[in-house]
Structure formats: C-alpha cells, structure tokens
TrEMBL record:
It comes from Flavobacterium caeni. Gene3D superfamilies: Glutaredoxin. Pfam families: 2Fe-2S_thioredx. This is Thioredoxin-like [2Fe-2S] ferredoxin. One of its GO terms (molecular function) is oxidoreductase activity. InterPro entries: NuoE-like, Thioredoxin-like_sf.
Length: 85
C-alpha cells in the first residue's frame, strides 16, 4: 500500500471504480468533521482499493475495523462520532 502515515486513526474511502463516483460528498464531509474537531494531525483520510462491495457504494472503513456501505453524509457524521470524535 506504500507510504503509511503516522496517524492515530485512519478513515479509508474506497476509491474503486464504482465508489469513486459516489464518495465525493462523503469525503468532503469527513474532511470537514476532522477539521472541525481539530484532529487533522491525528486522523488521516486515505484511499483504498475496491472492497468487493460495489453494490453498496460508497464504501468506507474506519480504522479497518468497521466497513460500511451506502454511506451518506448523515452516516458519516454518526461514524465519526462513534469512532473518531
Ligand atoms: S468500488 Fe468500492 S467496493 Fe468496489
């Protein structure tokens, strides 16, 4: 996977063919949440390969522990509160 950043938490956004068409809004939302929480140094947002769940695009994983599909910006907020904030 190449360069691993030293972050406490990582939010992975699937960047496969399908998800990359749907994940812009969610990506933006996570970026803002991280910024608002002042966690830019502790949380990084990375891309990951297709997870084989394309029907559920967009797919995201937080810290590789919980992978979820059909993520809306509302879900993004919930996930962020549960796992990051
Ligand atoms: S493109 Fe995201 S799961 Fe396949």
């Amino acid at each position: 996977m190449g360069k691993a950043k030293k972050s406490d938490k990582v939010i992975y956004l699937c960047d496969g063919k399908k998800c990359c068409r749907y994940n812009d809004e969610v990506k933006q939302c996570f970026k803002e949440l991280v910024k608002e929480a002042g966690l830019k140094k502790n949380v990084s947002i990375e891309k990951m390969k297709c997870q084989g769940m394309c029907k559920q695009a967009p797919v995201i994983c937080i810290h590789k522990s919980e992978c979820v599909g059909k993520v809306s910006t509302k879900d993004a907020k919930k996930l962020f509160e549960k796992h990051i904030a």
